[in-house]
Amino acid sequence: MLDIMDKALDSFSDKAVSFADIRLEDRNATNLYVTNGSLRSFNRRSTAGAVARTLVGECWGTASSSRHLSEKEFLGLLEKAAKMAKACSKHSRKDIDLSEIEGIERTVHQQVEEDPGDVSTEEKIELLMNLDKAQKLNDKIVNTNSVYGDARRIYKLVNTAGSKLEWDESRIRVVTQAVAREGSNVQFDFDVVDGTAGFELARSVDPEAFGSKTAKGAIELLSAEKPPSGKLTTVIDGNIAGLIVHEVCGHASEADEVVKGRSFLTGLVGKTIGTELVSMVDDGTLKGPSGSVPYDSEGTPSSRNVIIENGVFKGYLHTLETAILMGVQPTGNGRAQDFNRRVFARMTNTFFDKGDWKDEEIVEDTKEGLFITKFTSGMEDVVGGGVQGTALKGYIIKNGQKTQLVRQLSIAGKVLELLKTVDAVGDTLSFSGGTCGKGEEDFIPVSSGGPNMRVELIVGGG
């Protein structure tokens, strides 16, 4: 199929078009959901399609199809895309020059130990049933939930720069959530294992330990107290650090927001925005986390991009277009939800980098404060630089010790203020995977994370 796509591109001739590409996608996914000992849903889906893009002036035209295409039909997509781009370019004020992009010819197969497609549905259901059973510790557990998902995506891409690429991405996700009740008091806890891997990642989950841990957490939260409120010294774990780095720092670093003047980080390259302990990275090349990709949706290789280094803001996450507009190299962050969606500047694996402190040392060095873990929601303010979120639980710190368990915390702060309060950063990274939308749509797989960090946040009680 790559040869057919390449032939279509070679035979496409339109002097107004300065750049063009074709991307073919083939996706397969399985999702299973067990609740209270019963299989609630079983979904298996396959989708495939192609998209052609053309660039005229500063305007992109796109055309897509979910049909199996011949060379002639690929050529038809290119012609439709060119017609759209030329219509828009009548109002174009400048040209985007992608002539310096170097072509790449490569095939990359993700190495997995066990293809999820070779594992029977019965075995996957058995895993969830065992997880569900392990959550039923006692009568306080009133609801149990276990979820399994696997996904494989195969991409083929050609462009007028000479690229001829094929790669695949495989992901696994296992989730448990237990709900406990005591009178009118209802609490829940959850846990997630996910990443770019084969079924071996699911096999690494011990159903008894994983399920019972979630249930114990829900039961413990029944006796948790409300947290103190105000601007407090907090020790956040990698999960909460990931919330902050993703929701505000990450989205505001996406260069398509910057070129439109919609990011609070606009014009801050070279400026100090945090303490020397603060470094932030987006890295799609990491082995394991859910946001890892060999290439982005434009065929640019993934890379490690340092956004903040020792408190100094270094740069943004780019598509081909934004890189040309800002006079830098593309970073491999041009990502699309699928062949029916446009390419945006998007994150991959985004995290605060590790420091020198041991996790226990940060708590021991904290006289009074809060340890916060497990975010449940977050909201970005890309323009204003504020962050809001909620965390499932935490612990009051007194004299360097975690004491009373607290629940339902809200957290908030201005990023350019809170980054200047970071005075301790742990030496161990952790990641949380999931999907990220650009606004309310265009969802892609990503992960976020970081080490344990000490920072001042505004905290409220639920």
Could you give a quick summary of the protein structure above?
The chain is 22% helix and 42% strand. It has ten helices and 21 strands.
Structural overview:
This protein has 462 residues and is of the alpha+beta class. 22% of the residues lie in helices and 42% in strands. The protein contains ten helices and 21 strands. The chain has helices at 2-11, 71-89, 121-135, 200-203, 207-221, 238-252, 255-259, 320-326, 359-364, 415-418; strands at residues 19-35, 38-56, 59-65, 105-108, 141-159, 164-182, 185-196, 230-236, 280-283, 304-309, 312-313, 334-335, 344-345, 349-352, 368-381, 386-398, 401-414, 424-425, 430-438, 441-450, 453-461. The strands form four sheets. Strands 1, 2, 3, 4, 5, 6 and 7 form a seven-stranded mixed beta sheet that branches. The protein has a six-stranded mixed beta sheet with strand order 11-10-9-14-20-19, covered by helices on one side. Strands 8-15-16-17-21 form a five-stranded mixed beta barrel. β2 (38-56) and β3 form a beta hairpin. The longest helix is centred in the N-terminal third of the chain and has 19 residues, at 71-89. It starts with a helix and ends with a strand. The model has no long low-confidence stretch (mean pLDDT 96).
Quick tags:
seven-stranded mixed sheet; 10 helices; 462 residues; 21 strands; alpha+beta; six-stranded mixed sheet
What's the structural blueprint in terms of helices and strands?
Elements: H1 2-11, E1 19-35, E2 38-56, E3 59-65, H2 71-89, E4 105-108, H3 121-135, E5 141-159, E6 164-182, E7 185-196, H4 200-203, H5 207-221, E8 230-236, H6 238-252, H7 255-259, E9 280-283, E10 304-309, E11 312-313, H8 320-326, E12 334-335, E13 344-345, E14 349-352, H9 359-364, E15 368-381, E16 386-398, E17 401-414, H10 415-418, E18 424-425, E19 430-438, E20 441-450, E21 453-461
Parallel strand pairs: 4-6, 8-15, 14-20
Antiparallel strand pairs: 1-2, 1-5, 2-3, 5-6, 6-7, 8-21, 9-10, 9-14, 10-11, 12-13, 15-16, 16-17, 17-21, 18-21, 19-20
Helix pairs in contact: 1-2, 3-5
